[in-house]
Design goal:
The complex is a heterodimer of chains A (172) and B (108).
Chain A lengths: L1 H24 L2 H6 L2 H44 L5 E5 L5 E5 L5 E7 L2 E6 H52 L1
Antiparallel strand pairs in A: 1-2, 3-4
Helix pairs in contact in A: 1-3, 1-4, 3-4
Chain B lengths: L3 H29 L6 E5 L2 E5 L1 H56 L1
Antiparallel strand pairs in B: 1-2
Helix pairs in contact in B: 1-2
The chains are: A alpha+beta (172), B mainly alpha (108).
Chain lengths: 172, 108
């Protein structure tokens, strides 16, 4: 899950350079100057990137949902008394009866195979921290997506205009 | 104009960037811990208790290694790009020569 938050920074780094190029040519004038082939390539490139960004955004949303459910489970767990009877899942279809040990310590997966023991309090705090981190990543990515989408749309419109011009010229 | 070699390099670079980010997140969490906190590492199906100092050192070493690899790949990518550019220029020059020769033949 940690790597999903990081993918945003990997993408952002690659896209910033491209974004600067795009920003300089996002003016309609620049788009108009480009040949039809170039425009088509640009639009295809932009569309590809929009799709990649959408995928990343979806991944972030999924990860966020998982974190929220983890936080919810933690909250529920903290309400349960020690010694409470419970069913422990061994596989997806096999549960065994057990009793709840003290719910004050939790194991947190922090990534790259490391787990740390935290108190219930810290565990909840961890979840909240990750949730807000993912939220801010989501917002930043969303901004990049919006800009990229507008470039793709503009390129598409200019391209259509040029193709129509070309058709009008060849048929007349 | 992306050769398969260059695509592999880009994928590798992306993989390293992701790993670097993940390891940095882990380091941040480890730094937040008290010295006597329990750290475990997942080795296969087994959770093994680790010393906090050792975990810190391991993660730092991985971060160093990945950063070095990233730098190396960036240098390779730059190199390849430079090579591609010079090859492209040479190709254009040859094409121009070919065109001028053909034009000369057509006139004669």
């Amino acid at each position: 899950m940690g790597h999903l938050a990081v993918r945003r920074s990997a993408f952002a780094a690659e896209f910033t350079a491209e974004r600067e190029r795009m920003a300089s040519s996002s003016a309609r004038g620049e788009l108009e100057k480009m040949g039809i082939d170039q425009l088509k390539a640009l639009k295809e490139q932009a569309d590809l990137e929009v799709n990649l960004l959408q995928d990343s955004l979806n991944n972030i949303r999924t990860a966020n949902a998982r974190l929220e459910s983890a936080a919810g489970a933690l909250n529920d767990l903290s309400l349960r008394p020690q010694g409470k009877k419970m069913l422990v899942p061994l596989t997806a279809s096999l549960y065994v009866p057990g009793t709840l040990d003290e719910a004050d310590k939790v194991l947190v997966d922090i990534g790259t195979g490391y787990f740390i023991e935290k108190t219930m309090e810290d565990g909840k705090d961890y979840c909240q921290r990750k949730i807000s981190l993912l939220k801010s990543n989501y917002e930043q990515l969303f901004e990049v997506l919006a800009k990229k989408k507008s470039v793709a749309d503009e390129a598409g419109m200019v391209l259509q205009g040029k193709v129509r011009q070309l058709q009008a010229a060849t048929t007349s | 104009m992306i050769s398969p070699k260059s695509r592999k390099n880009h994928q590798l670079r992306k993989k390293y960037t992701i790993q670097l980010g993940e390891n940095e997140l882990v380091l941040k969490e480890l730094d937040l811990l008290e010295d006597d906190a329990n750290v475990y590492k997942l080795i296969g199906p087994v959770l093994v208790k680790q010393d906090l100092a050792e975990a810190n050192a391991n993660v730092r070493k991985r971060i160093e290694y990945i950063s070095a690899e990233l730098k190396r790949i960036d240098a390779t990518l730059q190199d390849n790009e430079g090579q591609q550019n010079s090859k492209r220029e040479a190709m254009m020059k040859l094409q121009q020569r070919l065109q001028s020769i053909q034009a000369g033949k057509a006139k004669a």
